[in-house]
Amino acid sequence: MKTANHLFYSISVSALVLLNSGCLKHDKDIPEPEISVISEENTGVAPTIVGNIPETYHPMDYAEEQERFDWENLAYLPFPPGNELVPMPWSDQAKRQFSDDIRYDYRKSDGWELYQSTFSSKFKEAHIAFSLYNKYRGILRYYYYVGSGTEKYRDYKILQNCVVSSEGSPLLNFTSQYIIDINQNTAYSYSFEPQDFAGSAWYAVEYELAFDKNIYSKGADFQMGSFFSMKKKNSLSINGKEQDELNAKVRAFGIDKSAENITSADACYIVYGDRDFNQIASTDINYFDRLDDKHILSGVLSKPAAMHIKWGAKLDLQLPPNGIGVSDESFFVSGSNLSRIQGKAPYYEKALGVFYLDRKPLYAVSENTEKSHPYEYTLDVSSVEYLFNPSLLEIADVNNLKQELVATEQESLMQNNNLANLYTGQVLKSTKPLYIQGVRVSFDVVPKDGGGKVHMIKTFRADLKS
Hints:
The chain is mainly beta. Helix content is 6%, strand content 35%. The chain folds into two domains: 13-53 and 354-464, no CATH class; 100-332, no CATH class. The protein contains four helices and 26 strands. The strands form four sheets. Strands 6, 7, 9, 10, 11, 12, 13, 14, 15, 16, 21, 22, 24 and 25 form a 14-stranded antiparallel sheet that branches. Helix 1 runs parallel beside helix 3.
């Protein structure tokens, strides 16, 4: 079990020791930048906190057979008498295919709430699944159980998951985009994880969700879907390096739901904690030892619970066009008007997500060849307009807001974040032109009940100020 001594707000000590102890020695491959950049603060200017977001409460109309269950304290799923005993996914009696980094991260005291389930002591469906939502992190975690009869599929070792949401919402933008474009709402997200197909086993995936300020006006037609299948591997290359196996979680971007054979895609690693670091290090991926708080562009860092970090990479993955379908489920999104739905309502009744931005941030560029650092880039701090979920502000404080430009020397470097020299600050003065990748925002979510704080990091595309 991971304890508070293993995980903290930047990177765990054990992971850094491993990654810097000789597994990865590529520092000499990173050219020293022939550039000088001065970083300064844009003093006297504050970001904008959009207040008075009209939160509307819609009471749920639960199906008659729905029943909440005490996931924290039960040893087995609450099935009607006469059914098989299925242990909870974190139990010592359970077989798990998901990462040990999230095994013990499920408690109410860390912010988890029951979101959805397909079972109770009154009925049992063929599809066994449930989901938990973390109200401090904006993460929805989906657990599902695969029964027996998988012996002939032992060479299926890659779990492919596609999550879908209705169009017209930023809900999946944190899941589906590495650097978020406010003007582009993404409806699909594909992830690939090394979870072998095995009988009588639990699987789990996570989605980090963005707050949708318009959720309260949406109805039951606004839904999410999760689609799981098991795949074989034809070929795999990450950052140009051939891999025998998929040893790390990756999430691909820009793939349509109809995709059957993925040949090349922009992607990122998904890192939950120490075990994920170890897996990635074992593949000898170039420059991964540069993963630290300074270089993180997207992350939810919590203590003592698991991390949820995205790290940019270049993925080349070929999969067979056909896989084994495991799960196919659609469910309603809480916060919308579900008062008259026909189906199983989510047990969590509030809007999802921690925050979002109301528009693209702005920055200015100036050039003065008479100065030693002629190129100057200035963030318009007031243009960073935060939208915080009202249901979050009822239970937590938001502290230590920070926003800064993220720049590189070339636009193409961000295709593989491992190779990029990042320059950050509200004002950047440079001897050479820079490429502004976006605006990185960060803050702490501090639960009012005394629970452990959560550190949020997100990077958004920015527009040049006219």
